[in-house]
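Could someone model S-adenosylmethionine with this protein?
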Amino acid sequence: MPGHRSIRTVDDVLALLDELFEPAADRWSTGAGASWWDGFYADRDREVPFFAARPDENLVSYLDRGLLAPGRALDLGCGPGRNALHLAAAGFTVDAVDLAPAAIDWATERAGAAGAGDRIRFHLGDAFTLADLSGPYDLIYDSGCLHHLPPHRRVSYRALLDRSLAPGGHLGLTCFAAGAMGSEVPDADLYRQGRLDGGLAFTREDLRWIFADLTEVELRRMHDEPAGSTCFGEPFLWTALFRRAA
Ligand SMILES: C[S@@+](CC[C@H](N)C(=O)[O-])C[C@H]1O[C@@H](n2cnc3c(N)ncnc32)[C@H](O)[C@@H]1O
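Reply:
Sure, complex below.
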C-alpha cells in the first residue's frame, strides 16, 4: 500500500471503519486468534445461559413445524456449537464458523462426544472473509452474532447472504430486542463514541429494513425457557426467520 493513501476499495473502507472500534475490547474482530470471546469461553463452568448444550427454542420450533427441511446449513458465530449440534441431529450437513479458537475447540469436542463430527465442519475465522465457506446454504443461522457487529459489517453480512444463501434458502437469527437488551445509540453515534457498548439493540422494523431483500416468515420475541428446559430461550431476544426468493 503506498504512503498515506490507504483507501481504494469498499473492503479498504470497511477495514478502516473496523479500526474505529477496539476489536479486542468490543466482542468484535475480523481476524482469527485472540479475541474478547476467547476470554469469555475460557471458563466453561460459568453460569452463562447459552453455555448449556441446548438449541434455541425457535430453531427447534421451525424444524418441528416443517418450516425448514434438512440440507446444508451455516452456523454463523457458532460459539460452543449448541445449534450446530441440533441441526446435525436434524439431518443437516453443517459448516460452523467462529472467530474464537476457544469456541471452536469446545464445539469440536461437543460434536465428537455427540458422534456428529462427520456432519459438522468447523471453521476458525471471520465469517465474512473466510474463503472456504462455500455455499450455497439452505439455512444460514445466526444466534447472537449480528448484534455484536459494527454497523458497517451489516454490509458484509448482507453480501454473505447474497453469495451464499441458496435460492429458496432461509436466514434464521436471534438478536437483542430494543427496549429489553442492548445499546440504542444510533449507528452514526457509535462511530463517534468508538464503542459498541456490549451489543446493539434492534427494533422489529430495523430487522425488516436490513433484510428487506428477503421475505419474512416469522418475527417474534423468543420464549422464556426455564433453566431445566431442553431448549434455550431468553425473552430479551428477537427470533426471526426470513426466506430468499426461489
Ligand atoms: C453471543 S455469542 C453466540 C454463540 C452461539 N451462536 C450461541 O448462541 O451459543 C456470539 C459469537 O459470535 C462470534 N463472532 C462474532 N463476530 C464474528 C465473526 N465476524 N465471524 C465469526 N464469528 C463471530 C463470537 O466469537 C461469539 O462466539
